[in-house]
Design goal:
The protein has ten helices and 25 strands. It is α+β, with helices and mostly antiparallel strands. It folds into two domains: 232 residues, PmbA/TldD fold (2-Layer Sandwich), CATH 3.30.2290; 234 residues, no CATH class. Strands 9, 16, 17, 18, 19, 20, 21, 22 and 25 form a nine-stranded mixed β-sheet that branches. A hairpin with a 6-residue loop joins strand 1 and strand 2. Helix 1 crosses helix 2 and helix 4 packs parallel to helix 5. One of its GO terms (cellular component) is cytosol. GO terms for molecular function: metallopeptidase activity. InterPro entries: Metalloprtase-TldD/E_C, PmbA, TldD/PmbA_N, TldD/PmbA_sf. This is TldD/PmbA family protein.
Length: 484
Protein backbone atom coordinates (compact mmCIF):
# COMPACT_ATOMS: atom_id res chain seq x y z
CA UNK A 1 0.00 0.00 0.00
CA UNK A 2 1.18 3.52 -0.79
CA UNK A 3 2.66 5.30 2.22
CA UNK A 4 1.68 8.70 3.60
CA UNK A 5 5.12 9.96 2.57
CA UNK A 6 4.51 8.91 -1.04
CA UNK A 7 1.19 10.74 -1.00
CA UNK A 8 2.76 13.82 0.58
CA UNK A 9 5.54 13.90 -2.02
CA UNK A 10 2.99 13.53 -4.81
CA UNK A 11 0.83 16.47 -3.70
CA UNK A 12 3.87 18.67 -3.04
CA UNK A 13 5.39 18.02 -6.46
CA UNK A 14 2.01 18.10 -8.15
CA UNK A 15 1.06 21.47 -6.68
CA UNK A 16 4.40 22.96 -7.68
CA UNK A 17 3.87 21.79 -11.28
CA UNK A 18 0.19 22.81 -11.57
CA UNK A 19 0.85 26.33 -10.24
CA UNK A 20 3.31 26.89 -13.11
CA UNK A 21 0.72 26.18 -15.79
CA UNK A 22 -0.79 29.08 -17.79
CA UNK A 23 -3.84 30.93 -16.43
CA UNK A 24 -3.83 29.09 -13.07
CA UNK A 25 -4.84 31.37 -10.19
CA UNK A 26 -4.87 28.76 -7.41
CA UNK A 27 -4.77 25.00 -7.16
CA UNK A 28 -5.15 22.04 -4.83
CA UNK A 29 -3.75 18.52 -5.17
CA UNK A 30 -5.23 15.66 -3.14
CA UNK A 31 -3.90 12.11 -3.06
CA UNK A 32 -5.26 9.07 -1.26
CA UNK A 33 -4.76 5.33 -0.92
CA UNK A 34 -7.20 2.77 0.46
CA UNK A 35 -6.83 -0.89 1.38
CA UNK A 36 -9.81 -3.10 2.24
CA UNK A 37 -9.64 -6.67 3.59
CA UNK A 38 -12.98 -8.53 3.67
CA UNK A 39 -13.67 -11.75 5.55
CA UNK A 40 -17.08 -12.99 4.39
CA UNK A 41 -18.88 -15.43 6.72
CA UNK A 42 -21.44 -17.81 5.21
CA UNK A 43 -22.40 -20.88 7.24
CA UNK A 44 -25.40 -23.20 6.93
CA UNK A 45 -26.19 -26.52 8.59
CA UNK A 46 -28.26 -27.95 5.74
CA UNK A 47 -25.69 -27.53 2.95
CA UNK A 48 -21.92 -28.15 2.86
CA UNK A 49 -20.23 -25.05 4.24
CA UNK A 50 -16.76 -23.91 5.26
CA UNK A 51 -18.12 -21.04 7.32
CA UNK A 52 -15.68 -18.58 5.81
CA UNK A 53 -15.47 -17.77 2.12
CA UNK A 54 -12.16 -17.04 0.41
CA UNK A 55 -10.84 -13.78 1.91
CA UNK A 56 -10.88 -10.84 -0.47
CA UNK A 57 -8.92 -7.61 -0.56
CA UNK A 58 -8.60 -4.60 -2.81
CA UNK A 59 -6.29 -1.62 -2.98
CA UNK A 60 -6.72 1.66 -4.79
CA UNK A 61 -4.79 4.90 -4.98
CA UNK A 62 -4.60 8.01 -7.10
CA UNK A 63 -4.82 11.78 -7.03
CA UNK A 64 -7.00 14.66 -8.10
CA UNK A 65 -6.58 18.37 -8.69
CA UNK A 66 -8.90 21.33 -8.23
CA UNK A 67 -7.91 24.40 -10.21
CA UNK A 68 -9.28 27.90 -10.20
CA UNK A 69 -8.34 29.70 -13.39
CA UNK A 70 -7.82 33.42 -13.89
CA UNK A 71 -11.13 33.77 -15.74
CA UNK A 72 -12.98 32.45 -12.66
CA UNK A 73 -13.70 28.97 -13.97
CA UNK A 74 -13.22 26.01 -11.62
CA UNK A 75 -12.02 22.62 -12.82
CA UNK A 76 -11.66 19.17 -11.29
CA UNK A 77 -9.73 16.21 -12.65
CA UNK A 78 -8.49 12.89 -11.28
CA UNK A 79 -6.12 10.12 -12.30
CA UNK A 80 -6.26 6.56 -11.02
CA UNK A 81 -3.23 4.54 -9.92
CA UNK A 82 -0.74 7.31 -10.52
CA UNK A 83 1.17 9.66 -8.22
CA UNK A 84 3.83 10.88 -10.63
CA UNK A 85 4.11 13.57 -13.29
CA UNK A 86 1.83 11.60 -15.59
CA UNK A 87 -0.78 11.42 -12.84
CA UNK A 88 -1.04 15.09 -11.91
CA UNK A 89 -0.42 16.12 -15.51
CA UNK A 90 -3.39 14.11 -16.79
CA UNK A 91 -5.53 15.23 -13.86
CA UNK A 92 -4.76 18.86 -14.67
CA UNK A 93 -5.68 18.41 -18.34
CA UNK A 94 -9.04 16.95 -17.29
CA UNK A 95 -9.61 19.83 -14.88
CA UNK A 96 -8.77 22.34 -17.60
CA UNK A 97 -11.07 20.63 -20.10
CA UNK A 98 -13.97 20.31 -17.63
CA UNK A 99 -13.72 23.75 -16.02
CA UNK A 100 -16.96 25.68 -15.57
CA UNK A 101 -17.92 29.03 -14.10
CA UNK A 102 -19.48 28.86 -10.63
CA UNK A 103 -20.24 32.34 -9.35
CA UNK A 104 -20.77 30.96 -5.83
CA UNK A 105 -17.20 29.67 -5.65
CA UNK A 106 -14.94 32.28 -4.07
CA UNK A 107 -11.63 30.53 -3.42
CA UNK A 108 -9.96 27.33 -2.33
CA UNK A 109 -9.62 26.88 1.45
CA UNK A 110 -7.29 29.17 3.38
CA UNK A 111 -6.01 28.62 6.94
CA UNK A 112 -8.88 29.13 9.38
CA UNK A 113 -9.01 32.09 11.76
CA UNK A 114 -8.69 31.16 15.42
CA UNK A 115 -12.42 31.71 15.99
CA UNK A 116 -13.32 28.84 13.65
CA UNK A 117 -10.67 26.34 14.62
CA UNK A 118 -11.68 23.37 16.71
CA UNK A 119 -10.87 23.78 20.39
CA UNK A 120 -9.55 20.21 20.57
CA UNK A 121 -7.09 18.60 18.20
CA UNK A 122 -6.46 14.90 17.73
CA UNK A 123 -2.93 13.62 18.39
CA UNK A 124 -1.10 12.60 15.24
CA UNK A 125 -2.49 9.32 13.86
CA UNK A 126 -4.82 8.96 16.87
CA UNK A 127 -7.25 7.00 14.72
CA UNK A 128 -4.72 4.66 13.09
CA UNK A 129 -3.63 1.23 14.30
CA UNK A 130 -0.50 -0.51 13.03
CA UNK A 131 -2.11 -3.85 13.87
CA UNK A 132 -4.74 -3.18 11.19
CA UNK A 133 -2.37 -1.52 8.73
CA UNK A 134 -0.03 -4.53 8.93
CA UNK A 135 -2.74 -7.19 9.33
CA UNK A 136 -1.93 -10.52 7.69
CA UNK A 137 -4.52 -12.95 6.35
CA UNK A 138 -4.00 -15.42 9.19
CA UNK A 139 -4.95 -12.96 11.91
CA UNK A 140 -7.89 -11.64 9.90
CA UNK A 141 -9.18 -15.19 9.39
CA UNK A 142 -8.80 -15.90 13.11
CA UNK A 143 -10.98 -12.88 13.90
CA UNK A 144 -13.65 -14.09 11.47
CA UNK A 145 -13.75 -17.58 12.99
CA UNK A 146 -13.81 -15.99 16.43
CA UNK A 147 -17.01 -14.19 15.42
CA UNK A 148 -18.54 -17.40 14.07
CA UNK A 149 -17.43 -19.29 17.17
CA UNK A 150 -19.29 -16.85 19.37
CA UNK A 151 -22.50 -17.65 17.50
CA UNK A 152 -21.89 -21.40 17.86
CA UNK A 153 -21.40 -20.95 21.60
CA UNK A 154 -24.83 -19.36 21.98
CA UNK A 155 -26.49 -21.86 19.62
CA UNK A 156 -25.33 -25.05 21.33
CA UNK A 157 -28.94 -26.11 21.94
CA UNK A 158 -30.56 -24.75 18.79
CA UNK A 159 -33.15 -27.11 17.32
CA UNK A 160 -33.47 -25.56 13.86
CA UNK A 161 -31.29 -25.42 10.77
CA UNK A 162 -28.95 -22.45 10.94
CA UNK A 163 -27.95 -19.84 8.39
CA UNK A 164 -25.24 -17.47 9.62
CA UNK A 165 -23.97 -14.65 7.42
CA UNK A 166 -21.87 -11.56 7.93
CA UNK A 167 -18.45 -10.13 7.42
CA UNK A 168 -15.44 -8.54 9.01
CA UNK A 169 -13.94 -5.54 7.23
CA UNK A 170 -10.49 -4.12 7.90
CA UNK A 171 -9.80 -0.79 6.21
CA UNK A 172 -6.75 1.45 5.94
CA UNK A 173 -7.15 4.97 4.52
CA UNK A 174 -4.33 7.41 3.86
CA UNK A 175 -4.48 10.89 2.41
CA UNK A 176 -2.42 14.02 1.81
CA UNK A 177 -3.28 17.40 0.32
CA UNK A 178 -1.72 20.77 -0.38
CA UNK A 179 -3.09 23.95 -1.94
CA UNK A 180 -1.88 27.34 -3.10
CA UNK A 181 -3.12 29.09 0.05
CA UNK A 182 -0.78 27.25 2.38
CA UNK A 183 -3.20 24.58 3.57
CA UNK A 184 -1.51 21.20 4.04
CA UNK A 185 -2.65 18.00 5.73
CA UNK A 186 -1.87 14.30 5.85
CA UNK A 187 -3.37 11.43 7.81
CA UNK A 188 -3.79 7.69 8.18
CA UNK A 189 -7.01 6.10 9.49
CA UNK A 190 -7.88 2.49 10.21
CA UNK A 191 -11.18 0.74 10.83
CA UNK A 192 -12.19 -2.71 12.00
CA UNK A 193 -15.82 -3.73 11.68
CA UNK A 194 -17.70 -6.94 12.44
CA UNK A 195 -21.37 -7.64 11.66
CA UNK A 196 -23.20 -10.96 11.88
CA UNK A 197 -26.77 -12.09 11.27
CA UNK A 198 -27.95 -15.42 12.68
CA UNK A 199 -31.06 -16.95 11.12
CA UNK A 200 -32.93 -19.94 12.53
CA UNK A 201 -34.83 -21.51 9.66
CA UNK A 202 -38.43 -22.61 10.14
CA UNK A 203 -41.99 -21.33 9.97
CA UNK A 204 -41.38 -18.50 10.33
CA UNK A 205 -37.64 -17.89 10.01
CA UNK A 206 -36.29 -15.86 12.91
CA UNK A 207 -33.10 -13.82 12.97
CA UNK A 208 -30.88 -11.69 15.17
CA UNK A 209 -28.10 -9.29 14.27
CA UNK A 210 -25.20 -7.68 16.11
CA UNK A 211 -22.10 -5.67 15.26
CA UNK A 212 -18.97 -4.05 16.62
CA UNK A 213 -16.40 -1.59 15.35
CA UNK A 214 -13.29 0.29 16.38
CA UNK A 215 -10.30 2.11 14.99
CA UNK A 216 -8.04 -0.39 16.78
CA UNK A 217 -7.99 -4.15 16.29
CA UNK A 218 -7.57 -5.13 19.92
CA UNK A 219 -10.78 -3.30 20.84
CA UNK A 220 -12.90 -5.23 18.31
CA UNK A 221 -14.84 -7.93 20.15
CA UNK A 222 -15.70 -10.30 17.31
CA UNK A 223 -16.66 -13.20 19.57
CA UNK A 224 -19.17 -11.12 21.51
CA UNK A 225 -20.64 -9.93 18.22
CA UNK A 226 -21.27 -13.51 17.14
CA UNK A 227 -22.65 -14.53 20.52
CA UNK A 228 -25.04 -11.56 20.73
CA UNK A 229 -26.26 -12.14 17.18
CA UNK A 230 -27.26 -15.71 18.04
CA UNK A 231 -28.75 -14.73 21.40
CA UNK A 232 -30.99 -12.19 19.70
CA UNK A 233 -32.15 -14.80 17.19
CA UNK A 234 -33.05 -17.21 19.99
CA UNK A 235 -34.96 -14.42 21.75
CA UNK A 236 -37.24 -14.05 18.72
CA UNK A 237 -38.91 -17.43 19.28
CA UNK A 238 -42.63 -17.26 19.99
CA UNK A 239 -43.03 -13.83 18.41
CA UNK A 240 -46.45 -12.12 18.43
CA UNK A 241 -48.06 -9.42 16.31
CA UNK A 242 -49.82 -6.22 17.34
CA UNK A 243 -52.64 -4.20 15.83
CA UNK A 244 -52.52 -0.66 14.45
CA UNK A 245 -52.37 2.16 16.97
CA UNK A 246 -50.14 4.58 18.86
CA UNK A 247 -47.65 2.94 21.18
CA UNK A 248 -45.17 4.14 23.72
CA UNK A 249 -41.80 2.87 22.58
CA UNK A 250 -38.16 2.37 23.37
CA UNK A 251 -36.12 3.03 20.25
CA UNK A 252 -33.05 0.80 20.19
CA UNK A 253 -29.73 2.21 19.06
CA UNK A 254 -30.03 0.87 15.51
CA UNK A 255 -33.53 2.30 15.17
CA UNK A 256 -32.36 5.74 16.34
CA UNK A 257 -29.45 5.51 13.92
CA UNK A 258 -31.64 4.66 10.95
CA UNK A 259 -34.05 7.51 11.70
CA UNK A 260 -31.24 10.05 12.08
CA UNK A 261 -29.63 8.99 8.80
CA UNK A 262 -32.92 9.16 6.95
CA UNK A 263 -34.59 12.29 8.33
CA UNK A 264 -32.07 14.38 10.27
CA UNK A 265 -30.57 16.03 7.19
CA UNK A 266 -28.58 19.01 8.43
CA UNK A 267 -26.04 19.54 5.64
CA UNK A 268 -25.97 23.14 4.44
CA UNK A 269 -26.08 21.85 0.87
CA UNK A 270 -29.47 20.25 1.58
CA UNK A 271 -30.66 23.51 3.13
CA UNK A 272 -29.56 25.39 0.03
CA UNK A 273 -31.48 22.92 -2.16
CA UNK A 274 -34.61 23.08 0.07
CA UNK A 275 -34.20 19.31 0.51
CA UNK A 276 -34.52 19.12 4.30
CA UNK A 277 -37.32 19.74 6.82
CA UNK A 278 -35.13 22.21 8.69
CA UNK A 279 -34.99 25.13 6.25
CA UNK A 280 -35.54 28.37 8.17
CA UNK A 281 -35.61 26.62 11.55
CA UNK A 282 -32.24 27.54 13.07
CA UNK A 283 -32.69 28.73 16.62
CA UNK A 284 -36.10 27.10 17.02
CA UNK A 285 -37.03 24.47 19.58
CA UNK A 286 -37.92 21.42 17.50
CA UNK A 287 -37.36 18.52 19.86
CA UNK A 288 -37.53 17.54 23.53
CA UNK A 289 -35.29 19.53 25.86
CA UNK A 290 -33.63 16.21 26.71
CA UNK A 291 -32.21 15.92 23.18
CA UNK A 292 -28.66 17.13 22.51
CA UNK A 293 -26.75 16.21 19.35
CA UNK A 294 -23.40 17.12 17.87
CA UNK A 295 -21.10 16.02 15.07
CA UNK A 296 -17.79 15.14 16.73
CA UNK A 297 -14.86 13.94 14.63
CA UNK A 298 -12.59 13.37 17.62
CA UNK A 299 -14.28 10.50 19.48
CA UNK A 300 -11.68 7.94 20.54
CA UNK A 301 -12.19 4.55 18.89
CA UNK A 302 -15.16 5.61 16.74
CA UNK A 303 -14.72 4.67 13.08
CA UNK A 304 -16.13 8.01 11.93
CA UNK A 305 -13.30 9.92 13.62
CA UNK A 306 -10.80 12.00 11.66
CA UNK A 307 -7.89 14.22 12.57
CA UNK A 308 -8.26 16.40 9.47
CA UNK A 309 -11.00 17.17 6.99
CA UNK A 310 -10.46 16.51 3.30
CA UNK A 311 -10.08 20.25 2.81
CA UNK A 312 -7.08 20.31 5.15
CA UNK A 313 -8.64 21.74 8.32
CA UNK A 314 -8.10 20.25 11.76
CA UNK A 315 -11.27 18.26 12.48
CA UNK A 316 -13.52 19.24 15.36
CA UNK A 317 -16.99 19.28 16.84
CA UNK A 318 -20.14 21.06 15.67
CA UNK A 319 -23.06 21.44 18.09
CA UNK A 320 -26.28 20.74 16.19
CA UNK A 321 -29.04 20.49 18.80
CA UNK A 322 -28.91 21.85 22.35
CA UNK A 323 -31.81 21.28 24.75
CA UNK A 324 -34.04 20.55 21.76
CA UNK A 325 -33.08 23.73 19.87
CA UNK A 326 -31.58 23.44 16.37
CA UNK A 327 -28.29 25.32 16.70
CA UNK A 328 -26.33 24.77 13.47
CA UNK A 329 -25.89 23.00 10.15
CA UNK A 330 -22.92 21.03 8.84
CA UNK A 331 -20.85 22.81 6.22
CA UNK A 332 -17.69 22.81 4.15
CA UNK A 333 -15.54 25.67 2.90
CA UNK A 334 -17.61 26.25 -0.24
CA UNK A 335 -20.91 26.74 1.58
CA UNK A 336 -19.42 28.82 4.38
CA UNK A 337 -18.20 31.27 1.77
CA UNK A 338 -21.48 31.11 -0.13
CA UNK A 339 -23.34 32.22 3.02
CA UNK A 340 -20.83 34.55 4.73
CA UNK A 341 -23.39 36.48 6.78
CA UNK A 342 -24.22 33.51 9.01
CA UNK A 343 -21.26 33.46 11.40
CA UNK A 344 -22.21 30.23 13.18
CA UNK A 345 -21.36 28.06 10.14
CA UNK A 346 -17.95 26.39 10.19
CA UNK A 347 -16.17 24.37 7.47
CA UNK A 348 -15.45 21.30 9.61
CA UNK A 349 -17.32 18.75 7.50
CA UNK A 350 -15.70 19.00 4.10
CA UNK A 351 -15.03 15.32 3.34
CA UNK A 352 -14.73 13.11 0.30
CA UNK A 353 -16.78 9.93 0.65
CA UNK A 354 -14.40 7.13 1.62
CA UNK A 355 -11.49 9.61 1.60
CA UNK A 356 -11.47 8.96 -2.13
CA UNK A 357 -9.43 11.18 -4.43
CA UNK A 358 -12.02 10.64 -7.20
CA UNK A 359 -14.47 13.27 -5.89
CA UNK A 360 -14.23 16.80 -4.60
CA UNK A 361 -15.17 17.59 -0.99
CA UNK A 362 -18.85 17.48 -0.16
CA UNK A 363 -20.54 17.82 3.23
CA UNK A 364 -20.45 14.62 5.26
CA UNK A 365 -20.91 13.84 8.93
CA UNK A 366 -18.35 11.99 11.03
CA UNK A 367 -19.72 10.80 14.39
CA UNK A 368 -23.23 12.03 15.12
CA UNK A 369 -23.34 11.94 18.92
CA UNK A 370 -26.60 11.77 20.87
CA UNK A 371 -25.78 12.80 24.42
CA UNK A 372 -26.72 10.17 27.02
CA UNK A 373 -29.36 10.51 29.71
CA UNK A 374 -29.68 9.03 33.19
CA UNK A 375 -31.69 5.83 32.57
CA UNK A 376 -30.39 2.29 32.45
CA UNK A 377 -31.74 0.22 29.55
CA UNK A 378 -33.99 -1.65 32.00
CA UNK A 379 -35.30 1.61 33.47
CA UNK A 380 -36.32 2.79 30.01
CA UNK A 381 -38.45 -0.34 29.62
CA UNK A 382 -40.09 0.38 32.97
CA UNK A 383 -40.63 4.02 31.99
CA UNK A 384 -42.59 2.95 28.91
CA UNK A 385 -44.45 0.33 30.98
CA UNK A 386 -46.76 -0.80 28.17
CA UNK A 387 -45.68 -0.48 24.56
CA UNK A 388 -43.03 -1.81 22.21
CA UNK A 389 -39.26 -2.02 21.96
CA UNK A 390 -38.10 -1.28 18.41
CA UNK A 391 -34.68 -2.82 17.89
CA UNK A 392 -34.23 -2.69 14.14
CA UNK A 393 -36.04 -0.98 11.27
CA UNK A 394 -35.53 -0.91 7.53
CA UNK A 395 -36.90 0.70 4.38
CA UNK A 396 -36.98 4.07 6.13
CA UNK A 397 -38.10 6.71 3.65
CA UNK A 398 -39.32 10.31 3.67
CA UNK A 399 -43.00 10.82 2.97
CA UNK A 400 -44.50 13.94 1.37
CA UNK A 401 -41.15 15.10 0.01
CA UNK A 402 -37.70 15.79 1.42
CA UNK A 403 -38.87 19.07 2.96
CA UNK A 404 -41.28 17.21 5.25
CA UNK A 405 -40.38 15.45 8.51
CA UNK A 406 -42.89 12.69 7.74
CA UNK A 407 -41.45 9.21 7.31
CA UNK A 408 -42.35 5.57 6.99
CA UNK A 409 -40.34 2.55 8.12
CA UNK A 410 -40.88 -1.14 8.79
CA UNK A 411 -40.11 -2.76 12.15
CA UNK A 412 -37.65 -5.59 11.61
CA UNK A 413 -36.13 -8.06 14.07
CA UNK A 414 -34.82 -7.64 17.62
CA UNK A 415 -38.11 -5.99 18.60
CA UNK A 416 -40.40 -6.87 21.51
CA UNK A 417 -43.68 -6.24 23.30
CA UNK A 418 -43.47 -4.41 26.64
CA UNK A 419 -46.07 -5.21 29.29
CA UNK A 420 -46.10 -3.94 32.87
CA UNK A 421 -42.57 -2.59 32.52
CA UNK A 422 -41.04 -5.85 31.27
CA UNK A 423 -40.16 -7.47 27.96
CA UNK A 424 -42.89 -10.09 27.48
CA UNK A 425 -42.44 -11.52 23.99
CA UNK A 426 -40.80 -10.89 20.65
CA UNK A 427 -42.59 -8.80 18.02
CA UNK A 428 -43.05 -10.61 14.70
CA UNK A 429 -40.74 -8.94 12.14
CA UNK A 430 -42.16 -7.17 9.09
CA UNK A 431 -45.74 -7.03 10.40
CA UNK A 432 -45.72 -3.39 11.54
CA UNK A 433 -45.06 -0.19 9.66
CA UNK A 434 -44.34 3.06 11.49
CA UNK A 435 -45.82 6.09 9.74
CA UNK A 436 -45.02 9.19 11.73
CA UNK A 437 -43.22 12.51 11.87
CA UNK A 438 -39.57 12.80 12.91
CA UNK A 439 -39.99 16.04 14.85
CA UNK A 440 -43.12 14.79 16.59
CA UNK A 441 -41.46 11.55 17.71
CA UNK A 442 -38.43 13.31 19.16
CA UNK A 443 -40.49 16.02 20.83
CA UNK A 444 -41.94 13.24 22.93
CA UNK A 445 -38.73 11.89 24.45
CA UNK A 446 -39.45 10.28 27.83
CA UNK A 447 -35.84 9.55 28.64
CA UNK A 448 -32.46 8.59 27.24
CA UNK A 449 -30.24 5.73 28.33
CA UNK A 450 -26.88 6.39 29.88
CA UNK A 451 -25.04 3.80 27.77
CA UNK A 452 -24.01 4.98 24.31
CA UNK A 453 -22.82 2.71 21.51
CA UNK A 454 -21.24 3.33 18.14
CA UNK A 455 -23.75 2.22 15.51
CA UNK A 456 -24.04 2.48 11.75
CA UNK A 457 -26.61 2.02 9.01
CA UNK A 458 -26.28 0.07 5.77
CA UNK A 459 -24.61 2.11 3.04
CA UNK A 460 -23.95 5.11 5.31
CA UNK A 461 -20.44 6.31 6.08
CA UNK A 462 -21.06 8.55 9.13
CA UNK A 463 -21.67 6.65 12.35
CA UNK A 464 -24.11 7.44 15.13
CA UNK A 465 -23.15 7.20 18.80
CA UNK A 466 -26.38 6.93 20.72
CA UNK A 467 -28.11 5.52 23.76
CA UNK A 468 -31.51 3.85 23.64
CA UNK A 469 -34.35 6.38 23.67
CA UNK A 470 -37.86 6.12 25.13
CA UNK A 471 -40.57 8.16 23.38
CA UNK A 472 -44.18 9.03 24.20
CA UNK A 473 -45.64 7.46 21.07
CA UNK A 474 -45.08 6.10 17.59
CA UNK A 475 -47.89 5.52 15.10
CA UNK A 476 -47.94 1.88 14.01
CA UNK A 477 -49.88 0.27 11.14
CA UNK A 478 -50.44 -3.49 11.00
CA UNK A 479 -49.30 -5.02 7.70
CA UNK A 480 -48.86 -8.51 6.21
CA UNK A 481 -52.01 -9.87 7.83
CA UNK A 482 -52.47 -13.55 7.06
CA UNK A 483 -48.79 -14.07 6.32
CA UNK A 484 -47.62 -14.31 9.95
Amino acid sequence: MRTVKELRDAVTEGLRWVEKQPRVKEAEVYASATYLNVQRICYATNVPSNGLEEPKSEESYGLSVRVRFEDGRLGFGKEDSALDRRGYGNAFLKAERNAVLDTDFHSLPSPLPASLRGKARAPRNAFADKAIANLDDGKAIDKAYDCLGGAFEALARAERDLNITGELNFTVERMALANSNGVKAEEENTQALAALTTLLEGKPDIAGMDFDSNTHLKALNARKTGFSSAEKALAMRGAKSIESGSYRAVLGRLAVTDLLHSRFEVGLNAVDEQATPFVGKLGRKLFSTQLNLSDDALVSGAIGSRGYTDEGFAAGKTLLVKDGVLENFLSNDYYCKKFPDEKRYNPLNGYRRGRNYASDPGIHGTNLVVEPGSFSDEELIREVRNGIYIGRIWYTYPVNGLASSDFTTTIRGDSYLIEDGEIKSALTPNTCRVSDNFERVFKGVLGLGRKQRVTFAWGQEPVVITPETAVESVKVERIAKGLY
